[in-house]
Amino acid sequence: MSTVSLKDVTKVWPDGTIAVNHVSLDVQDGEFLVLLGPSGCGKSTILRMIAGLEDPTEGDILLNGDPVLELAPRDRSIAMVFQDFALYPHMSVSDNIGFPLRLSGVEPSTRVDRVGDVASALGIGDVLGRKPSQLSGGQRQRVAMGRAIVRRPGLFLMDEPLSNLDSGLRAELRAEITGLTKELGVTTMYVTHDQAEALTMADRVAIMRKGILQDVGTPTEVYGRPATLYVAAFLGSPRMNLLEASVYVHLDQYIVLKFGDQSLYLPWSDIRARAVAHYHGERIVVGLRAEALTPVAPEVQGDVLRGRIRYLEHHGHESLAFLDIGATAIVVDEMGAGKAEGEGGNALRRFGGALQKLAGRSSNGSGPQSRDQGDPASVLTDPGRHHRRPAELAVRLAPYPAISPGHPLSVAVRMDMLHFFDGRGDRIDVGWR
Ligand SMILES: Nc1ncnc2c1ncn2[C@@H]1O[C@H](COP(=O)(O)OP(=O)(O)OP(=O)(O)O)[C@@H](O)[C@H]1O
Q1: Ranges for all domains in the chain classified under CATH 3.40.50.300
Q2: Ligand 1 centre and the CA of 315: distance in Å?
Q3: Which of 34, 41, 47 to mutate to test the pocket of ligand 1 (most atoms within 8 A of CB)?
Q4: What pLDDT, on the 0 to 100 scale, is given for residue 165?
């Protein structure tokens, strides 16, 4: 059993790349913590520093409350599994799993017992005599995990262990990995860039962007109350609708949120109203997840947005309508995973972001850091980090609805489910988490 503490850890590579930027993070005993973020955000570097394969430039790392930076990797009671695991091709499954025990001089009969226990927990008890070349990809990955876990490490580090497997096998192994680590009670840090994987597996998720820790919380917390615009945009499918809104306070009675020529009204009684009222006369970003939007009849009044369907996506169990509501959307760039865009758009849109970057409009702000951006320039005005485009509001519909592109659609908005972010991408809220 182990706890892990990162204390203000920074890693700067010799070429000046800041891979990890003042990260502080505590992992509890027996916890399954997922480090989530796009490629290059520093996830692997964090694992490698904990394992002792890299030294931090600044900060401290504690295991079970003790500083470990002076300890060699083998003295840290840590096991690590990578995406590109290597099994010994000439050894049987049994010998592959038992290899670390042989190295540490565990006697053969104990070795056989321990290998048998681990193999049956991983569902590979019947292939112990085979060579790696006679196994499926999933079985090979199970052997790699078995080899890592057979030493009964205090801490299990996994770096995208499923990313080479097909989606069916991934889903199956996700459940097995969390089941196994819970059963063994071993503290686990698991790296992925797949938000669905993170939300389904984690006790808590830590979300990174460009070396900066954005948010840490249970899946419900980070999905339900994301700390930054970036986290809001990263989590969920379809992605959260992020709309630019102008804020007007009306005689301390309600707040008008103006999206193009449509408005929503936040009553003064809403617990968040005073915090939002600080932005009177300014623009903010309002986040609406698809579950906050319900299609209604055209005559319905109140908290309703109206638009025309630009296009539909059919996903079998549901359809998504994308509504042109005459508002402006904020598109968060550098989402990195590069695949969820299809849920809310198309390749052209992705190119749009890339082209803006190629045009050289990068941010060069200076001043205090914001967690979301790492610099203070506004997400509302800086196209180098985020860009603006006509909003296409993602709305969930029944499968194959009797409606087609060009049709008008009205959606009722759950005002209590709106998310508010300031121009720097930080959450506008009161007393959250
Ligand atoms: N040995 C190195 N020398 C210089 N830069 C490095 C080195 N290793 C990693 N980097 C850089 O450090 C940053 C963080 O890399 P890291 O591998 O931790 O990211 P990651 O989030 O794990 O990405 P991925 O999901 O692609 O593995 C990246 O910009 C990467 O290019």
Answers
A1: 4-226
A2: 35
A3: 41
A4: 78
